[in-house]
Amino acid sequence: MKNEFNNRLGMAKTVLTTLDKPANFAIWQGKPPLAFTKKVALLRTKVAQNETLLSEQEAIITGFAEQKDSSEIELEDLAHEIGAALSDYYDDNDHQDLSAQVDFSISAWRTLREESLVARARIVEKNLGTTLTADAAGLVDYDLDAADLTALSAAIASYNDIIHSPQAAIANRKSLTKAARPTFRDMSNILGSLDKLILRFRKTDAGRQFVDAYLASRIVRDLGTSPAKDDPTTPPTP
Predict the structure, then answer these.
(1) From the centroid of its chain, how far is CA 51?
(2) What is the mean pLDDT of residues 160-166?
(3) Which residues, other chains included, contact 180 with Cβ-Cβ below 8 Å and sequence gap of 6+?
(4) Is the model more confident about 208 or about 179?
(5) Which of 35, 93, 137, 153 has its CA 20 to 30 A from that of 65?
(6) Confidence class of residue 229 from pLDDT cuts 50, 70 and 90?
(7) Closest of 70, 97, 86 to residue 149, by C-alpha
(8) CA 110, CA 77: separation in Å to the nearest integer?
(9) Other C-beta atoms within 10 Å of 134: how many?
(10) Cα–Cα separations (whole angstroms), residue 178 to 8, 46, 173
(11) What phi and psi values does residue 62 have, to the nearest 5 degrees?
């Protein structure tokens, strides 16, 4: 969906570039129908707004993804390390049932995502806490103590906060679409008006060439979905 908006914004910027070519600019700027000049100004404003919107959202998405990846790897590594040592303790004390709850390869940890990762890490956290209460001295030989429990709890909390943050909601594709669709619809409506008004410039050869160039610029390149679904305006046939 992000590509859809980028492609539509690219089309609108191409339209403005076409309109601003000196030969074309002289044909429409301040010339009847004057509504055309006014709506080009509106289009400039809307294009700038949409460009800012996509840029800000891209920054949020990128920042969230980097923060999430870092926190995710930290949690996976720590849970695997603690779980492996705890599993060995359980095996040596004939608690294979408990060992199975915490013994996962690092590749298995890497396959877990968001809620699944948090849930699995909490199992290691719970088992470590229970075992520390029951036999803290026995865990010393496995280099496990209360500091490990504190570190694991902090890593779980940090990752859980990240995946439930406002940035996570914005980074979600559905939220991105919801935020961008109204303002892009406004841009489409302005372009639709220009499509109708531009026909009035076909009174001269230069005007007809201008109209043809404008219509060519109105093609959305590499759009992943049908333009009819999201951009109802269709350039008129000269």
Answers:
(1) 15
(2) 82
(3) 5, 50, 53, 54, 57
(4) 208
(5) 153
(6) very low
(7) 86
(8) 9
(9) 9
(10) 16, 17, 9
(11) -65, -45
d(CA 175, CA 53): 13
d(CA 44, CA 36): 12
Q: Tokens for 53, please give them.
A: 């919107």
The span from the CA of 19 to the CA of 16, in Å, is: 5
CB 35 within 8 A of CB 42: no
Which stretch of 27-41, 62-76, 141-155 has the lowest confidence by average pLDDT?
62-76
CB proximity list for 80: less than 8 A, separation 6 or greater: 104, 105, 106, 109
Pairwise CA distance, residues 19 & 84, whole Å? 66
- pLDDT at residue 10 is higher than 50: yes
Report residue 147 as tokens.
């500091």
Q: How many CA atoms lie within 13 A of 173 on its CB side?
A: 5
Confidence of residue 62 (pLDDT cuts 50, 70, 90): confident
